[in-house]
Each structure stands twice: as structure tokens, then as C-alpha cells.
Design goal:
The protein has 396 residues and is of the alpha/beta class. It has 15 helices and 15 strands. Helix 4 packs parallel to helix 12. The longest helix has 20 residues. It binds pyridoxal-5'-phosphate.
Length: 396
Amino acid sequence: MSLSRSDLAGELDRLREAHLYRTPRTLAGPQGPRPLVDGRRMLAFCSNDYLGLANHPRVIAALKRGADTYSVGSGAAHLVTGHSIAHQALEEELADFTGRARALLFSSGYLANLGVISALTGRADQVFEDRLNHASLLDGARLSRARLRRYAHADPRALARMLDGDQVRLIATDGVFSMDGDLAPVPELVPIARRADAWLLVDDAHGLGVLGEEGRGSLDHLGLGPEQVPILVGTLGKAFGTAGAFVAGSRELIETLIQRARSYIFTTAPPPALAVATRESLGIAQRESWRRERLRLLIRRFRAGAAELGLPLPDSATPIQPLIAGTARQALSWSRRLERLGILVMAIRPPTVPEGSSRLRISFSAAHTTEDVDRLLEALGSLRHETPETGSAVGR
Ligand SMILES: Cc1ncc(COP(=O)(O)O)c(C=O)c1O
């Protein structure tokens, strides 16, 4: 879409009329299940702080210690003078954690995906992606000018049918789909990528920390390693509670990214203190498996309660539990009604999800209690008695 200066107001009006206008909420105080949002204390089910580490005292102390030791800003890009021993140590720990030869830090998951895909593919290539992949994976292919081809969600057979042999450079998928919570069929993608001699990239933003032994992610959960999936992308702003991201893989892959990934090369390195904080949270995430157990308990309780209420929940065993509304208007209506009850759940609408699949994206954190889940269920139950002007009822 292109917009001239005189088009802006009209386009903003169009978004409002289509129930697609979005505005950030303003939080005061720490991240957690009970944030102070626009001055009001809410019970929130919106964050990706799955293990409840964003506000962990030891992670906060590590950040402060890091700032005392390394200053706040990194001062330059990694390839200039921005790469500190804190970054280096974190990269080594992430490589070890993911069972790969090396890892490379990026400032965000968005930038990691842009960097790795555009470093490895070009105009003559085809990149195949799951239709519901995160925007950053799709944008990485667009930036590389490769031909982006999207296969039906979680459908390896559809992918196999689409591959026409030559110049298939890369197949990319979310490990856990960010808006649906389901797992990608990675074991079935492995032989397809191998036959096509293509890279297989799994972005495990929502699996790391949450799934697998010591939170090693969806690949560990599925029994897959670097042999099967040579490129692993992970983010640090979700289960690990800090910020940033990394790509993990072979020595040659990481060296190639250092030489070629523009979103690594042409940007200031993240603050070293953040690396110190992430080292702390990575350790806690690995050691404290009770956080994953609690998540599983909360998810089971929620799904059992939702089934009793007849709520339309797709299959998901992860902390991401989408409640499909259909239209943007309906999702907004549910979200607003919950908000009146003091519960914050965001309405997710196009372009984040496909047209007609607007939803409430409910997400759980180990910092939630079973009482929080019960309060949410009670509130969702009350949505069943919607009045005509607020839209249709949820569930049976
Ligand atoms: C699957 C996936 N990849 C990448 C990202 C981007 O990560 P970041 O928020 O660190 O930019 C997200 C979410 O934001 C995501 O859900």
C-alpha cells in the first residue's frame, strides 16, 4: 500500500471503521500478571513472559550489576567495539544450551529473522514458509528478494507438492505458532528439506524455555538436533524475560552471518548489561523446572474449564491459548467486556492473523495462580450472555 500525505487521515479512519485500529496500552510498574494499565490494576493474560522471569529479583540485580560493570550503552556495533565479554559469554552459553557449535546475538527476533534469511537467500531463490509464520520470517524472505511461497498451515504434504526442485534454498517455520500455540510438524519437514537440499530454519521464539528438557525448546521436545534442523532462531524477550534474540548453528553458518547479516552488522550491539541479565535468567529457566510444571498445570486447568463452558479453543498444549472470535469486531467486543471485568486479553486481528480468524490470544505465565485461571474462566463464562448490541455470545 502506498499513502500520500493527504491519504493518512482517511486511511486511519478506514482502520477505525474496520475495527482494526490499534493503540499501545501504557503500563506503570513492573511486568507481571497484575500490571497497572492506564492507571488501573488488571489481571492480564497477554504477555510472553511465560516463566515469570521479567521481574525476577536476580535478573534485575544482574542487569544492575551489568550496567555497573559495562556501562549502559554498548557504544557501537558488534563488529566495531560493541561486543563485550558479557555478549561473548552469553553466546557461548546459548550455543551450549541449544546443543549447537555457536550462537550469534541479535537485538531482536525480528532482526534475527531478517538477518539470517537475507544472508542466505537471494533473488534467484525460493523460500517456502508456513502460511501462519511470524511476520519477521515472511519479511526476511521479502528483504532477500527471493520468491516467497507460503504453504498451508502445518501441512508438510502441501509443502512437498509445491516444491518444484530447483533453487529451493530455505524452508522456515515457527516452532510453536505465535498466535495459535500449536507445534510445527518439524519431523515431517526434515526429510522434505533434505530431499530438496534446502536449509531448514525453525524459529522457536515460543518454545524455548517452555518445552523440552530444561526448557531446551520444541526441537528438544521432538527429539531433533542440528543434523535435522541446521538453523535455530530463539528470542530472549519471551520465556527468558529480557530482550534480544539469537541464531544458533554450525561454526560456518555463524561466521557467514557475521560477514553477511545486515541486521547484525549495521546496528548498535544490545547493552552488555542485558547479556548479563539474560545469562542469569537462562540459568534460572534451566534449573527451575517447577515453572514449566506450573504452566502445564495452569494450561490443563484452563482447557478443562474452557471445555466445560464449550469455548471454541483449538488444540494447543502451550501457554498460548487462542479463543477464536471470527470477525475483528467480535474479538474487540469480547476483549472490551473482559476489560470491564478487570481482565486484560488482547484482541488479535488482521494483519497479525488471517481475515476471519480474529481472536483473543490468551497466554499464561508461571507467575499466574490457579485462582487467576478460575477468574478468567468465570469472566469468559459471563461472555456467554452477550447482549445483541455487543455481538454474539462465546461458546455454546
Ligand atoms: C515466532 C516469532 N519470531 C520472532 C518474533 C520477534 O521477536 P522479537 O519480539 O524479539 O522481535 C516473535 C514475536 O515477537 C515471534 O512470535
